[in-house]
Amino acid sequence: GENVEQHPSTLSVQEGDSAVIKCTYSDSASNYFPWYKQELGKRPQLIIDIRSNVGEKKDQRIAVTLNKTAKHFSLHITETQPEDSAVYFCAASISNAGKSTFGDGTTLTVKP
Amino acid sequence: GAGVSQSPSNKVTEKGKDVELRCDPISGHTALYWYRQSLGQGLEFLIYFQGNSAPDKSGLPSDRFSAERTGGSVSTLTIQRTQQEDSAVYLCASSFNRVNEQFFGPGTRLTVL
Questions:
Q1: How many CB atoms within 10 Å of residue A68?
Q2: What is the pLDDT of residues A10-42, one digit of tens each?
Q3: Which residues have C-beta within 8 Å of that of residue A54, sequence separation ≥ 6?
Q4: Of A67-81, A85-99, B14-28, B58-72, where does mean pLDDT reach its minimum?
Q5: What is the DSSP annotation of A58-109?
Q6: Which residues of A touch B99 (CB under 8 A)?
Q7: Which three-class secondary structure state does DSSP give residue B72?
Q8: Which of A2, A77, B42, B97 is positioned for an S-S bond with A19, CB 3.0–4.6 A?
Q9: pLDDT at site A61
Q10: What is the model's pLDDT at position B80?
Q11: Radius of gyration of chain B measured on its C-alpha atoms
């Protein structure tokens, strides 16, 4: 089955710096890659996603890049703010299977 | 509109008892997922329903766990003969179809004493 590895497990940055979280996946058939943000005590919420026919997608301070050949994708957050502090999860899905495999999460702390 | 709802929000039970957790997905969402999240851990896939197709049960950790989805809407996750290691937050999510944004419910926090 699909295996998703996420790094780093924890990340601490200064407010205003950039943060990068990387994920690798094992199944080349995976074609949908969402990123979820989970604030403490709350439910995960989608922040950005990318499909395999696109190499990069950007939404204000957040961007995701996908390298299908290397089977990895990354989340980039620029100009970090304290409210970006949360746990971020990547996931990979195969359209025919539907099931999503999640990474173990990255705890991002943005220090003011 | 209404989001995904789960009940109860908290459940405390004694070891060996059975529990039922309920999930009400967003109306019109054909896909429904159950996950387990232990404290400070990631999202462990349990089971996935898509329309009227047979569910993907590949994530259920043991035969004490089962789930059903009635009428393509409400789902119930049942844990029989609960054990202390079952203590976790159980999250339900739904999506419009099989590969799209998942909307998560608030979760049910299960504590097995």
A1: 14
A2: 999 999 999 999 999 999 999 999 999 999 989
A3: A66
A4: A85-99
A5: EETTEEEEEETTTTEEEEEE-S--GGG-EEEEEEEE-TTT--EEE---EEEE
A6: 31-32, 93-95, 98
A7: helix
A8: A77
A9: 97
A10: 98
A11: 13
Residue with structure tokens 């089955």? A1
Which stretch of DSSP H or E encloses residue B112? strand B108-112
The CA distance from A107 to A89, in Å, is 9
CB contact under 8 A, B104 and A100: no
Closest partner residue to B99 (CB to CB) among A1, A32, A89 is A32
Instruction: Give Cα separations from A48 to A31, A33, A37, B27 (angstroms).
Output: 15, 9, 9, 23
Spans in chain B with pLDDT lower than 70: 1, 98-99
Residues of chain A with C-beta less than 8 angstroms from the C-beta of B43: 44, 89, 102, 105
Integer Cα distance of A4 and A32 in angstroms: 13
Token couple for B109: 């926090």
Q: Are B57 and B64 in contact (CB under 8 A)?
A: no
d(CA A33, CA B85): 30
Q: Burial letters for B30-68: b for 16+ Cβ neighbours within 10 Å, e otherwise?
A: bbbbbbbbeeeebbbbbbbbbeeeebbeebbeeeebebe
CA pair distance B26, B32, nearest whole angstrom? 9
